[in-house]
Design a protein that fits this description.
With 371 residues, the chain is α/β, with parallel strands linked by helices. The chain contains twelve helices and 15 strands. The radius of gyration is 20 Å and the shape is globular.
Length: 371
């Protein structure tokens, strides 16, 4: 691939409903939209998933723009590349900044698939023509409001209900949901809100027949999670603790979890996501695709990676209409009876809606190759 132009766009989109977790509330989303153009005239697209404030991790929308523009793009444009997997090594001189790396690498993956006249799913090694979809419900103002949300999404056919929890908003709420919906696949997501001092509270969740508890302890921990998992019947799923395939190797070796959440942005891109997927498959550890309130292009990348065979649990990739009044792709992502059916076409399979992209764009920058 010979890349001759990269366009960075700052988009801001309002969420249909505020989304609350143990770390805070989001009402809108600032993100970097990356377009990579080749000399063949094709464009690859991807999104940065970092949020405006360093609440989920240390990256933000502004740091992503800085790292992509000042460091990663010069590395990308040093020479043509034959395959997107090469970018792991090419970007290795930049430490961390996984979400920035994932945004630029994802656009290259989309371009690569289009130039080779295949879907992004097939380029990654995907085997499915549809994926199971779960839903993520933020912390609600009351038990009644939570039950109403759950009832709505169960009626829409979502295959798994994820409920955000934090100390004081956990066991009683989940118990109420389980009483009302005794058979639904349900999990809890703590976003690092607990410590081993809360172990009795977490052990109480065992009686609720949860699929998993996601990241109950510190965002950078795998040691205490191993101690906790040894005392829980409920599987622990690691999220924030996992950035690389090496993190996964150590977590599996220590017994820190039984499930891994793969977020493309958190682990640095599609290539690293594949490596994590393959290692987990080797050790019989199921994976699923987490969400970061992506707009349509980021959502399309999540759909593509979820077609790999060891993504055996429903992910967070819900319909566009769950989050946005208008999305930036055509057609928008739709869920039918709990499934998303893969679109036809090369690359991500969805067409960027340039009218909406321009409407939501606050700033843009064009970088031309000098090769």
């Amino acid at each position: 691939m010979e890349i001759n132009r990269i366009i960075l766009r700052h988009l801001k989109m309002d969420l249909l409903h505020p989304f609350t977790t143990s770390t805070g509330t989001e009402a809108d989303k600032d993100f970097v939209l990356v377009e990579v153009q080749s000399k063949s005239g094709l464009s690859g697209w991807a999104e940065s998933v970092a949020i405006f404030s360093p609440l989920y991790n240390e990256e933000t929308f502004k740091t992503n723009w800085h790292i992509i523009d000042d460091f990663l793009i010069p590395l990308l444009l040093q020479a043509p590349i034959n395959h997107p997997d090469e970018l792991i090594e090419r970007f290795s001189s930049v430490r961390g900044n996984y979400m920035a790396k994932a945004a630029l690498e994802g656009a290259v993956w989309d371009l690569y698939a289009k130039e080779n006249k295949m879907s992004l799913s097939k380029a990654l090694g995907g085997t499915k023509d549809k994926i199971e979809v779960g839903i993520s419900i933020g912390i609600q103002e009351s038990e009644k409001a939570l039950l109403k949300q759950v009832e709505s999404y169960v009626s829409q056919g979502y295959k798994r209900i994820k409920i955000k929890i934090k100390p004081g908003f956990d066991y009683e709420l989940l118990q109420a949901v389980r009483k009302e919906f005794p058979t639904i696949p349900m999990m809890a997501d703590a976003n690092s809100a607990y410590s081993l001092h809360n172990i009795d509270r977490l052990k109480a969740l065992d009686e609720l027949n949860l699929m998993m508890i996601e990241q109950p302890l510190a965002h950078d921990d795998i040691i205490d999670h191993a101690e906790l998992q040894a005392q829980l019947k409920t599987p622990i799923c690691l999220d924030e603790s996992i950035h690389t395939v090496e993190d996964v190797r150590k977590a599996i070796q220590l017994g820190s979890c039984k499930i891994i959440n793969i977020k493309i942005g958190r682990v640095g891109g599609l290539s690293e996501s594949k490596r994590i997927h393959d290692l987990c498959a080797k050790h019989d550890v199921p994976v699923w695709c987490g969400g970061m309130l992506e707009a349509g292009i980021g959502r399309a990348h999540n759909i593509a990676i979820t077609t790999l065979p060891n993504f055996t649990l429903p992910g967070d990739t819900a319909a566009s209409s769950r989050y946005w009044a208008e999305d930036i792709i055509t057609p928008e992502v739709e869920v039918k009876d709990g499934y998303i059916y893969l679109p036809e076409g090369f690359g991500i399979g969805y067409e960027p809606n340039l009218d909406n992209i321009n409407k939501f764009t606050l700033e843009s920058k064009i970088i031309n190759s000098i090769i």
